[in-house]
Specification:
Blueprint: H1 6-10, E1 16-22, E2 27-33, E3 38-46, E4 54-59, E5 66-71, H2 77-90, E6 100-107, E7 118-119, H3 122-130, H4 139-152, E8 158-162, H5 172-175, H6 181-186, H7 196-209, E9 218-224, E10 228-234, E11 237-241, H8 263-270, H9 276-285, H10 288-293, H11 298-306, H12 310-334, E12 339-343, H13 344-349, H14 351-358, H15 370-374, E13 381-382, E14 391-394, H16 399-417, H17 421-429
Parallel strand pairs: 1-6, 6-8, 9-12, 12-14
Antiparallel strand pairs: 1-2, 2-3, 3-4, 4-5, 7-8, 9-10, 10-11, 13-14
């Protein structure tokens, strides 16, 4: 049993948190100082296991501020994290620093058990492993990152922050699929939702933008990146979200189909002779915008539209049509909407997507001011006219800051209470 000691939590006087996002062939990391919520360093190790591996490290503090690059084979995630640790150490920010309070890990799937940030123990890690069948592309990579970080700093609190946690407040009638209950329960088939750290952060920031508390507002959050999801958030709690058992359901995405008649899969197997794996690849990697027009970059799609490309125009229209459907549906779910909020790469940067998604929804109290919508900014901002009944906003997401904040809050709380092992396990299991 690996349990952080009292000593580990007593070190919470330290204020820094390292955030790790371990993918199948990449590791993203950020070091943040929670004293002022500033970033000290950010980095990316990509193409792990290939001869063309690359580490890009940016220091944001001190005389050595700037970006450094390493190229050449990085064999595995352990080597990747060690290389990242070396870069941090070169900036005086090494993993052995007494200022490091904890390491926060993004974990994609936490099922129903993990509804909040959780200190990682052997039991917690085993449960994350048991969830691999419902997150086969993500949880294994997250586990590798956790184990590697534990080996590098076994004395340091390691915290899992789950993409699914924010959505566990969905009522049962929204989370369940209408299939045989025994079969669903036996195989954990239900709607979990993803991008939870983004939806939590953005919905809270939207309330601040409106000058109100999260408990006072109902918002629809549209997280539009290469992966895309929508959520309906009532009084700070998610009541509906577009992704389901996996990140495939919902909006049209860069390479994923989003909503589709389930019988399409049977048809492709019976008529086209495609295997289950081939259909999986089709729907996850060869569909969405790239399947419709060959591009998943919205900037390129807009360029092609401006040149008269009909396939690109159709792909854009399908993308926007799905957004409108979800805005309308979630308006009905919430009953009262105070704001529709755009975030993530496309949501933050594509004025044409925002304009098209809101166009024609005046009956819902929605409108976009063309001048405000055209402004590019890294700050939260309203893009609706003053007279609009429902605010339309752009709120840049910050998943790393959200993970760091949740990690530090948990470690700080446990540090104050200085729990013994039995008490600590009780907090984790609840």
């Amino acid at each position: 049993m690996t349990t952080p000691t009292k000593k580990g939590f007593a070190a919470v006087q330290a204020r820094r948190v390292l955030v790790l996002n371990s993918g199948s062939s990449s590791v993203k990391y950020q070091l943040l100082d929670m004293e002022d919520r500033s970033r000290l360093a950010i980095g990316l190790v990509e193409r792990i296991g290939e001869d063309t591996s690359r580490l890009l490290h940016t220091s944001l503090t001190g005389a050595g501020a700037g970006t450094r690059e390493r190229t050449g084979r990085i064999a595995d995630h352990e080597a990747a994290l060690k290389a990242a640790a070396e870069e941090l150490a070169a900036d005086g920010l090494g993993l052995d620093s007494p200022d490091l309070a904890a390491i926060g890990h993004r974990v994609v799937h936490g099922g129903l058990r993990f509804t909040e940030p959780t200190v990682i123990t052997d039991e917690v890690l085993a449960e994350i492993e048991r969830l691999v069948p419902v997150a086969p592309l993500h949880n294994p990579a997250n586990i590798i990152g956790i184990r590697t970080a534990q080996a590098l700093r076994p004395d340091l609190p390691q915290v899992a922050v789950f993409d699914t946690a924010f959505h566990t407040t969905m009522p049962e009638y929204a989370a369940r699929y209408a299939i045989d209950v025994e079969t669903a329960d036996a195989h954990r088939i239900r709607r979990y939702g993803f991008h939870g750290t983004s939806h939590a952060y953005v919905s809270r920031k939207a309330a601040e933008l409106l000058g109100r508390t999260p408990e006072e507002v109902n918002v629809i959050v549209l997280h539009l990146g290469n992966g895309a999801s929508a959520s309906a958030v009532a009084g700070g709690r998610c009541v509906e979200t577009s992704m389901g058992l996996t990140p495939l359901e919902g909006l049209v995405m860069g390479t994923r189909s989003g909503d589709i008649d389930p019988a399409v899969t049977f048809h492709l197997k019976r008529v086209a002779g495609m295997s289950v794996d081939e259909i999986d690849v089709l729907l996850n990697k060869r569909s969405g915008l790239v399947g419709l027009c060959g591009d998943n970059d919205m900037r390129e799609i807009r360029r092609r539209i401006d040149e008269g490309d009909e396939r690109a125009a159709l792909a854009f229209d399908i993308y926007v049509h799905r957004l409108k459907k979800y805005i309308g549906a979630y308006s009905a779910v919430l009953g009262r909407v105070d704001a529709v909020v755009f975030t993530a790469g496309v949501g933050e940067n594509s004025a044409p997507v925002r304009e098209a998604a809101i166009a024609g929804l005046e009956g819902f109290g929605l409108a976009v001011d063309a001048g405000l919508n055209a402004v590019r900014s890294g700050e939260p901002r309203l893009i609706s006219p003053d007279h609009a009944r429902v605010a339309v906003a752009v709120v840049p997401t910050d998943e790393e800051l959200e993970i760091a904040g949740q990690t530090f809050a948990l470690v700080e709380r446990l540090g104050r209470t200085a729990p013994g092992q039995a008490e600590l396990l009780g907090q984790i299991d609840n």
